[in-house]
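Sequence design from tokenized structure. All designs in this work follow the same two-part layout: the structure record, then the generated sequence. An example of the structure record is given first.
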């Protein structure tokens, strides 16, 4: 066995009601005027947060959008300058947290991230950005939030149609960590636990919005995010990246649909990972169990529903083999095209 293990420093404050500690956490970072970030549809939450912060708030910028468009970042940087902010509080899902990271990339301002979905980006050094429709991803410790507050109460308002796929997005980080090139005993342990917690809790989250289940799922999402941060991702993330970029599909929905198919692509090439995923899901076959979960938690049963044509699948396969990520099974065009065809029809993975 050979491996290198390294991790990223960030402070995690976890628990129901802990959002009340935000002022203390902001001050702990030496921030005196934080710009509060949010999305347009949750601007009220950002306003409430700024009110709760009182003099520690410099203002609110609630224009975050999926995949961090650079024009939004430019407006946010102008807001930082105009308000004299010396830190950010990002309250929201991966889109809002992405905006906080983009501000930190340009300014090095400290960030408190307060996730309200299960996407996991708050603990990663990655920033995905879009410019003129093209998505690029960079990796630097500069964008890693210094402090993360996980408060499961904040996810109570998350609609089941967002919560379920967002949770499967988190499971995808853990699944791919188990067959990653840099897999190591620690991240694999975290991945097992992330899959077990998320898969165990998410059905109750979407069915009854149970508070304990929400906490369990959020803890799983944190562990999955740490996996994503510490080992590289493979064909599943690559294909979601390609499909998301081509069709502007909702990030979490496409992860939710594709995960069983991408896992099936690697079924024979990563037997140990398959056994661990299956064990965490208390099932026989990992891709089949993931398909059951995806149908229970997601809105889409096939790729066709998202709107692509068969010709689009050819284009997606071409893009997926360009600059491929490491993958346990070599990435070949015919194999990828067959995986996409199965997802297109919603066939058994
Ligand atoms: P999102 O942040 O786009 O949120 C989805 C929708 O849900 C938004 O309209 C948002 O306002 C709403 N919402 C969020 N929390 C809510 C709540 N608690 N109650 C009600 N509504 C709520 O979705 P996401 O899936 O969390 O993030 C997707 C983005 O994150 C993508 O841009 C993706 O690329 C990025 N991402 C990045 C990383 C990374 O490591 N860099 C990891 C995962 C995801």
């Amino acid at each position: 066995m050979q491996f290198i293990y390294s991790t990223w420093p960030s402070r995690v404050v976890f628990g129901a009601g802990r959002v009340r500690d935000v002022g203390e956490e902001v001050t702990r970072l030496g921030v005196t005027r934080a710009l509060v970030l949010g999305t347009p549809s949750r601007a009220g939450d950002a306003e409430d947060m700024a009110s709760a912060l009182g003099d520690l708030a410099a203002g609110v910028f609630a224009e975050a959008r999926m995949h961090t468009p650079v024009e939004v970042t430019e407006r946010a940087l102008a807001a930082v300058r105009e308000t004299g902010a010396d830190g950010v509080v990002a309250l929201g899902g991966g889109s809002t947290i992405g905006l906080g990271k983009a501000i930190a990339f340009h300014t090095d301002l400290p960030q408190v991230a307060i996730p309200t979905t299960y996407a996991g980006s708050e603990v990663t050094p990655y920033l995905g950005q879009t410019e003129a429709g093209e998505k690029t991803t960079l990796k630097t410790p500069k964008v890693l939030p210094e402090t993360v507050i996980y408060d499961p109460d904040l996810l109570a308002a998350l609609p089941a149609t967002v919560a379920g796929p967002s949770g499967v997005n988190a499971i995808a980080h853990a699944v791919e960590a188990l067959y990653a090139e840099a897999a190591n005993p620690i991240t694999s342990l975290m991945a097992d636990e992330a899959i077990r917690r998320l898969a165990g809790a998410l059905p109750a989250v979407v069915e009854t919005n149970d508070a304990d289940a929400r906490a369990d799922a959020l803890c799983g999402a944190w562990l999955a995010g740490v996996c994503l941060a510490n080992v590289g991702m493979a064909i599943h993330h690559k294909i979601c990246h390609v499909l998301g970029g081509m069709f502007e599909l909702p990030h979490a929905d496409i992860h939710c649909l594709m995960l069983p198919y991408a896992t099936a692509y690697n079924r024979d090439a990563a037997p140990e990972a398959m056994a661990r995923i299956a064990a965490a899901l208390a099932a026989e076959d990992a891709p089949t169990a993931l398909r059951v979960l995806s149908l229970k938690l997601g809105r889409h049963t096939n790729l066709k529903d998202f709107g692509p044509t068969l010709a689009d699948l050819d284009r997606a396969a071409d893009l997926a083999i360009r600059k491929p990520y490491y993958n346990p099974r070599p990435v070949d065009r015919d194999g990828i095209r067959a995986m996409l065809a199965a997802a297109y029809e919603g066939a058994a993975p």
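The chain is about 55% helix and 10% strand. We note this feature because it recurs in several other targets discussed in the main text.
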